[in-house]
Amino acid sequence: MRKPHPGGGTEKLPMTEPAPREMRLMRASCRRGTAACPIRSCDQRGWKAEQPAGRWGGAGSPAPTRQCPSPGVLPPSLPAMAHAARLLAALAALLAAAATGDARPSKIAVVGAGIGGSAVTHFLQQHFGPRVQIDVFEKGTVGGRLATISVNKQHYESGAASFHSLSLHMQGFVKQLGLRHRREVGGRSAIFNGENFVLEETDWYLLNLFRLWWHYGISFLRLQMWVEEVMEKFMRIYKYQAHGYAFSGVEELLYSLGESAFVNMTQRSVAESLLQVGVTQRFIDDVVSAVLRASYSQSAAMPAFAGAMSLAGAQGSLWSVEGGNKLVCSGLLKLTKANVIHATVTTVTLQPTEGKPLYRVRYENEAGTGSDNYDIVVIATPLHLDNSSTIAFEGFDPPIDVVQGSFQPTVVSLVHGYLNSSYFGFPDPKLFPFANILTTDFPSFFCALDNICPVNISASFRRKQPQEAAVWRVQSPQPLLRSQLKTLFRSYYSVQMAEWQAHPVHSPHTPLPRFTLHDQLFHLNALEWAASSVEVTAVAAKNVALLAFNRWYQDLDKIDQKDLMHKVKTEL
């Protein structure tokens, strides 16, 4: 018997030798004196199960024998019953797939070639196999918000600059693609409030802890405990996904990880949640707000779940990819041999068919317009930007419901020049010790300032000294004016700017969207309305690939299951 295999093709169900307790389940199939006995080493006249030498007592010990019990003599054990139930579930999925007449989809469309689109393309091929054609539509450059800018013949990160050490999907991509971690060049950080530094990092770990305790008491410990509790529960998603479980909506996914506590964290602010666990308002204003401004360009009024994801990235060790983080996207698409179509998708139309649905994707580029039919469509790009829908959906009844929300504009300016250290209270630039500056609510014209390194770092590379011309990355909500550039820099050679809608404006009043828009139409970016980061997008990509696979083969027991921790422990 054969069943669809997630890696492609079909998998032959093995006739393995069962354990002694599992033999009792076979008794209904055993026919004495016939060749129908399911156990290969069974003596059909006496049910003598010959075990390999050494399994029970060494090379010289005799293998035990077991007489075939009559039906009903011994009840099957619970683990054996669970094993049999899984086999029956797999058989049911096989029969359902056979009823459709096709074991796999023929064509899949992915809209967007950022980290979400490239990751879901990789995961879809893992599950459906290499023979499925996957078309990836991208109107811009591959990589999306993972991008670089060239300054003085060197490339620098202009998008997501680094990843947390617990970003397991990203770690897996880098290992599979044979990429390397970039060598880190250390630098000290500080928080600036527009007049002076409210917190300064030193080179001594114990002194840093003492300063935190002196200014804020044990608030930093309470913050760390709160973030670690959230992350410990969030890490369950990797175990769920390893066992093939998927979720049709963001609320279902969050509930499976942290039950109602995680769902409630999307409806209350970071400040409210931290005050409840004993973090002081001063620590929130000085430190927490600065971290959130640097990552989301938003304040402590944003929802607690998104804030916890951001604060986790500030506490752990960080890493990035040698040669540029965008190499992960291009590498995954090359690995899957996906067909990348440089075009803008304008419309997705549901075609009138019997059986499984069919979607017609219309697109346009410099060559004109085109269209094609697909069995599965994954939208891996925001569906609502600048108060307008990016893609039209036609032929759906009821109509496709798109979350109405706004995105936070973010501007990254790479300035090659001399920092004006006097603005930060250091008249002598040689004495300026910081490479990374975060800001509180003031000054309002920039959120963070970093002395950055190129994406390719040689063994002899060293960070520029404060009095030397360096490349600084300035993150701001709006393009910097000339007067603002003169405030931050004594002089500069060049300014390279990138502007995009980086993250949703996270609000406690925004409803949580669903991944499933229609039977085989999915929106990967739904999860970023709960939290937005590169690794969260990769988690959403894996979820959508599993969701498409499970829905295609009607394995509904793997979708939106309750009490998954108990189920996973049972399977282990």
From TrEMBL:
Cofactor(s) listed: FAD
Gene Ontology biological process terms, A to Z: neutrophil-mediated killing of bacterium; prenylated protein catabolic process; prenylcysteine catabolic process
Organism of provenance: Moschus moschiferus
Keywords: FAD, Flavoprotein, Glycoprotein, Oxidoreductase, Signal
Domain Prenylcysteine lyase: 199-561
Protein name: Prenylcysteine oxidase 1 like
Gene3D superfamilies noted in UniProt: FAD/NAD(P)-binding domain (3.50.50.60)
Lineage: Eukaryota, Metazoa, Chordata, Craniata, Vertebrata
GO molecular function, one term: prenylcysteine oxidase activity
Similarity comment text for this entry: Belongs to the prenylcysteine oxidase family.
Biased composition (Gly residues): 1-10
Record InterPro entries: FAD/NAD-bd_sf, Prenylcys_lyase, Prenylcysteine_Oxase1
The keyword Iron appears for this protein: no
Region Disordered: start-end pairs: 1-20, 48-67
